[in-house]
Amino acid sequence: MAETLKVVVTGAAGQIAYSLLFSVAKGDVFGKDQPLELLLLDITPMMEVLNGVVMELMDCAIPLVKNIVATDDPMVAFKDVDAAFMVGAMPRREGMERKDLLKANVKIFKAQGQAMDQVAKKTVKVIVVGNPANTNGCILSKYAPSIPKANFTCMTRLDQNRAQAQIAAKLGVSNEQVSNVIIWGNHSSTQFPDVAHASVTIQGKTMSVPEAIKDDSYLNNEFIKTVQQRGAAVIKARKLSSAMSAAKAACDHMRDWFVGTGKNWVSMGVISDGSYGIREGLMYSYPVKIQDKAWTIVQDLKISQFAREKMDATAAELSEELDAALAECEA
Ligand SMILES: NC(=O)c1ccc[n+]([C@@H]2O[C@H](COP(=O)([O-])OP(=O)(O)OC[C@H]3O[C@@H](n4cnc5c(N)ncnc54)[C@H](O)[C@@H]3O)[C@@H](O)[C@H]2O)c1
Ligand SMILES: O=C(O)CC[C@H](O)C(=O)O
């Protein structure tokens, strides 16, 4: 059997973690024959709740789980970890603005970056889920300078899954028939869900999504808005932020990072190297291909004027967020 993989989940007493831990524990992410040590981090007042989660994980009696550590100490939680799901952060509730989240959450990622820098494996693969996910990811990486920047990513897979599901429903096909939908930019309402390069297979015939939908007005308006506003719509309906779908997307993201993407691409927030004219250093969602546990940005896609404007608008929001976060961390 393979060596035990150490996986940390932060915000482990919260609602996303409740779904995420079960999927990770039963092998959906790292494989059905990969033994795991689960490190669960939350804050001190949540230790009793976290203890309940540990009891439930034990009671699942999953053979892959060799050890569980529950802690409120980041230095314990990040020690020698191979993979990190950074979920621990306040979610937005109805009536709250994104800016309120930035203030509340960004310092968590500064402190956790500093701890990771000292004790995590230098090969650790990190997905940031806690919002504002892109900017938190930048801050985490900044404060963990001994870990390569390529090891820090943030989650826009939920947006990709949402976009894919909208197109599949519109065309009356199953979700896996739709591929290569792209999410550009921020995991926020300025994100640009782009289907110009996406394809769909209908009754054995593969064609581009715009060709299949035959309704550019829908694709350029209602479709984009629905995906951009989906998180807010879930909050309005549930009075709670999305959790089951967020956990599923986090699993998809990390599984693809470990296993690879094959011929298709997926979207993830990665630290920009300036590709597609985006400011270097922003954590911007791009289409990526993954092989041997390393991602590369898909290059040379043709960008229309319409797309360019949307890509720049979400980059401008990310620039503002990053500047505000850096000021907050230095205050
Ligand atoms: N990127 C995405 O697509 C996406 C999707 C859904 C939700 N989110 C975000 O994920 C985050 C978590 O959402 P949730 O619904 O699970 O929230 P939740 O409130 O149910 O759980 C968050 C948990 O994080 C813990 N926490 C707070 N500060 C911490 C710290 N310093 N260290 C460790 N743990 C800490 C809390 O105690 C709580 O248990 C939110 O910021 C939410 O907005 C992101
Ligand atoms: O706070 C929001 O508007 C979104 C919450 C979460 O990130 C989601 O996409 O479901």
From TrEMBL:
- A Pfam family this chain is assigned to: Ldh_1_C
Q: Does the keyword NAD feature in the UniProt annotation?
A: yes
Q: Where, by residue number, does substrate bind?
A: R92, R98, N131, R162
Active-site residues, record numbering mapped to chain: H187 (proton acceptor)
Q: Which GO MF terms does the UniProt record name?
A: L-malate dehydrogenase (NAD+) activity
* Listed GO biological process terms: malate metabolic process; tricarboxylic acid cycle
The record ties this protein, via InterPro entries, to: L-lactate/malate_DH (IPR001557), Lactate/malate_DH_C (IPR022383), Lactate/malate_DH_N (IPR001236), Lactate_DH/Glyco_Ohase_4_C (IPR015955), Malate_DH_AS (IPR001252), Malate_DH_NAD-dep_euk (IPR011274), Malate_DH_type2 (IPR010945), NAD(P)-bd_dom_sf (IPR036291)
Q: Where does NAD(+) bind?
A: D42, N105, V129, G130, N131
The family annotation for this protein states: Belongs to the LDH/MDH superfamily. MDH type 2 family.
Its recorded name reads: Malate dehydrogenase
Q: Which organism is it from?
A: Elysia crispata
Q: Lineage of the source organism?
A: Eukaryota, Metazoa, Spiralia, Lophotrochozoa, Mollusca
